[in-house]
Write a structure and sequence with these properties.
With about 375 residues, this protein is of the alpha/beta class. It is about 35% helix and about 15% strand. The chain has helices spanning about 20-30, 45-50, 60-65, 80, 100-110, 130-150, 175-190, 205-210, 235-250, 270-275, 320-340, 355-360, 370-384, and strands at about 1-5, 30-35, 55-60, 70, 90-95, 115, 160, 165, 170-175, 190-195, 210-215, 255, 280-285, 300-305, 310, 360, 365. The strands form three sheets. The chain has an eight-stranded mixed beta sheet with strand order 3-2-1-4-5-6-16-17, sandwiched between helices. A seven-stranded mixed beta sheet has the order 11-10-9-12-13-15-14, with helices on both faces. The mean pLDDT is about 95. Bound molecules: nicotinamide-adenine-dinucleotide.
Length: about 375
């Protein structure tokens, strides 16, 4: 079995799907590991380290893709990359199957078995394969550093001969994986932290990190059967706005991470809230790529409104490529070890939720109901 590690071609993608430290385990299991020259360059893992770990370097992208029985990568493949894969090959990566279901159709047409890392079930059994969580943790951490660098103030309280500095106040909206990491990081930097989420279950986690939980009592169920937040009603949005307004207005830093899977991100920070913030304050919006939690957010840009800097970073995990790659690689390796059989085959048991949820194309068919629905809706819009 040939496992190939691709060099990313997406602009701004510095991560790599497998790091040298983990290659030995695959070689030991009987796999031949091929690595495209320069694949680890962006994340500071030089070719020599891969070679030393037992991988074979390959300078020709096309032949690496054609030879691969399993190809691992980070960002979704380009169409021309998909066309290089041989029939029956296995592709593992963030494939964005719900955002761009056409790529899945193309993979199915090429009879590629595609495993989408963002669809790994969020269960304890699959925890060590959960790339959404590992990368969200990186984003939550980095968001706080970006905010701290942009804020014209200290984060910690300082008692100095030149006077006492009050600690910065940070308000984190959305206390999922990224939000909790943001809370922990802001606390470590000495800020006073408040947090809010429509899932009441996170209250204790927020408090255990030393932040104050801002509770909004809503008259509806805010959590779907899958454990994720649901889109809330207009009435609940109004109630939320009333409660959080003052907290945004008095924050030096607002970090927003609120997402509802498959939907545009909810707008939580409105014009009136920004207008009430002290000039110099900073908003870092981690939902920038899915529409933004702040009304002024522009993905990939810093916008200044009413003296408030609104930062909409994209692909934050890629800005910390060493540890982001290390964590992603561990997720990928665990999935590979789970699927590889002793005789060098691949165990695709569709009764197993990890395989069923993660596999989006196999044997010429688009799989996974959510992906089929996304493709169906897209094709019906296109045909109208
Ligand atoms: P996410 O990125 O989809 O959303 C981030 C946060 O935004 C969530 O906490 C969500 O509740 C919140 N949010 C959504 N709409 C909001 C609104 N209008 N106002 C305020 N907050 C809002 O979530 P995520 O961080 O990827 O994961 C969160 C979910 O996944 C949780 O259910 C978590 O328990 C679960 N999870 C489970 C595991 C596991 O069991 N292994 C691992 C990771 C995550």
């Amino acid at each position: 079995m040939k496992i190939a590690i691709a060099k990313e071609v997406e602009v701004g993608e510095h991560r790599v799907a497998l790091i040298p430290d983990l290659i030995g385990r695959l070689v030991k299991a009987g796999a031949e590991v091929l690595v495209e020259c320069g694949a680890g360059e962006g994340s500071f893992f030089p070719d020599e380290q891969y070679e030393k770990a037992g991988a074979k370097l390959c300078s020709d992208k096309a032949s690496l893709w054609r030879e691969a029985d399993v190809l691992v990568k980070v960002a979704p493949p380009k169409d021309w990359e998909v066309d290089l894969l041989k029939e029956g090959a296995i592709l593992i990566g963030f494939l964005n199957p719900l955002g761009d279901p056409l790529i899945v159709r193309r993979l199915a047409e090429r009879r590629v078995t595609a495993m989408s890392m963002e669809l790994i079930p969020r269960t304890s059994r699959a925890q060590s394969m959960d790339a959404l969580s590992s990368q969200a943790g990186v984003a939550g951490y980095k968001a706080v550093l970006i905010a701290a660098a942009a804020l014209p103030k200290f984060f910690p309280m300082l008692t100095t001969a030149a006077g006492t500095i009050r600690p910065a106040k940070v308000f984190v909206m959305g206390a999922g994986v990224a939000g909790l990491q943001a809370i922990a990081t802001a606390r470590r930097l000495g800020a006073v932290v408040e947090a809010f989420d429509i899932r009441p279950a996170v209250k204790e986690e927020v408090q255990s990190l030393g932040a104050k939980f801002i509770e909004v009592i809503l008259q509806e169920d805010t959590v779907g059967a899958n454990g994720y937040a649901k889109e809330i009603s207009e009435e609940s949005k109004k109630r939320t706005h009333e409660v959080i307004s003052d907290h945004v207005a008095t924050a030096d830093v607002v970090i927003t991470t609120a997402q509802v899977p498959g939907r545009k991100a909810p707008v939580l920070v409105t014009e009136d809230m920004v207008a009430r913030m002290v000039p110099g304050s900073v908003i870092v919006d981690l939902a920038a790529e899915s529409g933004g939690n702040c009304v002024y957010t522009q993905a990939g840009k810093d916008v200044v409104r009413d003296g408030v800097t609104v930062i909409g970073p994209v692909n934050l995990p890629s800005s910390m490529p060493v540890h982001a790659s290390q964590m992603y690689a561990k997720n990928v390796l665990t999935l590979l070890q789970y699927l590889l059989t002793k005789d060098g085959g691949f165990n695709l048991n569709f009764e197993d939720d990890i395989v069923r949820d993660t596999c989006v194309s196999h044997a010429g068919e688009v799989r996974n109901e959510r992906v089929k629905n996304a493709l169906g809706s897209l094709l019906s819009v296109v045909s109208q």
